[in-house]
């Protein structure tokens, strides 16, 4: 049933969007994507997700942060896809130096200590430079 729903929703989305020639611009050289994957202590808990989303909005005030995006996991039957997490963030920085200054920044440190760590059983990070 789940596979049928996913396939149906995917087909509806493709039909609604129609053909597209839109192309995402290449990221500016030297920018960094900081990908943070969260596993909640209470998997799937909507209130916990909302607390993390509200907190993440504050990260845009940190110098060097260009964008903060988030999303929820998509269930998958494919072996190669890890769908065991709850939500993920992609935080884009203007440079590696800004990424390095981000971790100890008071806004990030407070949100990590007061929101992310209490709500999450596991957090995994990937950093990618363009």
The helix/strand order is HEHEEHHE
Mean pLDDT: 86
Low-confidence segments: 1-18
**CATH class placement:** Alpha Beta
Q: What CATH architecture do you see?
A: 2-Layer Sandwich
Helix content: 25-40%
What is the domain total for the residues? 1
Strand content: 25-35%
Number of helices: 4
Instruction: Report the count of strand segments.
Output: 4
Overall 3D shape: globular
Measured distance between first and last alpha carbons: 40 Å
Strand order, largest beta sheet? 2-3-1-4
What's the CATH topology name? Alpha-Beta Plaits
Class of secondary structure makeup: alpha+beta
Pfam family, one: Dabb
Organism: Haloferula helveola
Domain Stress-response A/B barrel: 32-128
Keywords: Signal
Q: How would you describe the overall organization of this protein?
A:
By secondary structure, this protein is α+β, with helices and mostly antiparallel strands. It has a single domain, classed as Alpha-Beta Plaits, CATH 3.30.70. Helix content is about 35%, strand content about 25%. The protein is built from 4 helices and 4 strands; from the N terminus they run αβαββααβ. It has a 4-stranded antiparallel β-sheet with strand order 2-3-1-4. The longest helix has 16 residues. The N terminus is likely disordered. InterPro entries: Dabb, Dimeric_a/b-barrel. Pfam families: Dabb. This is Stress responsive barrel domain protein. Keywords: Signal.
